[in-house]
Amino acid sequence: MFRRFFVLLLVIFGLVFVAGPIAVALLAIERNPAVASMPKPTAEELARAGRLLGLYLRALLGIEQGAVLTVSARDINNLIAYAASGNDRVAARAELSPAGVAIVGTLKLPATPLGEFANASVGIAPSQDGFKLTHVRLGTIEVPGLLATPALRLALDWALGDGYGSAALAAVRSVTVQGDTATARLAPTPQLAARVKERMATAFKELVRPPAPETVRAYYARILEVASAPNATGFATYLGAVLRLAQERAGDPVVENRAAILALAMFFGDSRFERFVGAVRTGALDTARPRVKLDSVNLSGRHDLVQHFTISAGLVLISASGLAWTIGELKEIQDSAPHGSGFSFSDIAGDRAGIRLAETATSGATAARRLQALLAGNPAEELFFPRVVDLPDDMPAAEFGRRFGGGVGSPAYDTMLREIDRRIAERPAYRGG
Known about the structure:
Helices cover 52% and strands 14% of the residues.
């Protein structure tokens, strides 16, 4: 799917610029960024972005009666910031005007004699007659709307197959901009939703390449063995057991570590991780029940930190670190709302430690084996998990804003994150990893 998009883009640029790749590079790479940085959204804006993203995805993938999607420029920019969280090489912004929706972005590249920035922009025109682009621009290369919209239709047809790309664009009946608000009206397209879900699942498998279900199954079975003892309440015991098994299996250490972490994420975090792997809990594993009470298994004396740690580690393996961190952060921001449990930096530390474990465990064969050697067996928790007992916890939104200067992105907030990262980096499991 991704290869087809890439080839199609090359064809389009080749038709527009016969001079070929060298000319494209000369025109696409620039010395100055179109967007130097993005303002960080407040806690409330980030939470709203997460809710909007979920709402719009559900609408787009499950349309039966049609839907009306309405966003402000600020909503779009918050969604961009939400999606780009954790990636400081990307900056983008959206603007609304009577001419439509304009999105401008910059990707910072390794320095070259031509420059180090790839700037791009796309314009979506107001229309009562379907979806229309005003232009697509990469650097000084511009594809006008007359070509850009058919090219997008062709790209989607190629990616989705059987004319579904044309159906996807045809589902957009109108786009209107009024002041600071853009509205898209979508037609009922249930068959398109099914195809998009199917292709998204296929693309995900190609991109992530999860370990085979039978590999994860071996680690899940080992976790159940450990949980057969009612006093197995330290999470370190479970982590040590699966990494010992990884040593014993003597396969590709990165693949084995990925399987081990996903099994932990399934068992302690969320069973839905199994959807990304395939059938793991088959046969006796489907009905097996641990003797230990799962909510008694703890990190730093708390079971919720086990969940933060394993879910974030699992998310790294099925997405990217930025996404894992954003999801964890969003959960804490939502908890700071009046009816939430309160913003807790110890939970954030659990998220970030889980991310660091997954990154280290799968960054390469040498690091993977080193981690196995250090943590296999029954390791001390201090080898891989930071001290959290003195971190600010359970802060309602008002207190969070007062103590941390408005919340996410404030100097005080960033200082606390740096302190958490320093504590994690000091753990022996991550030194040099």
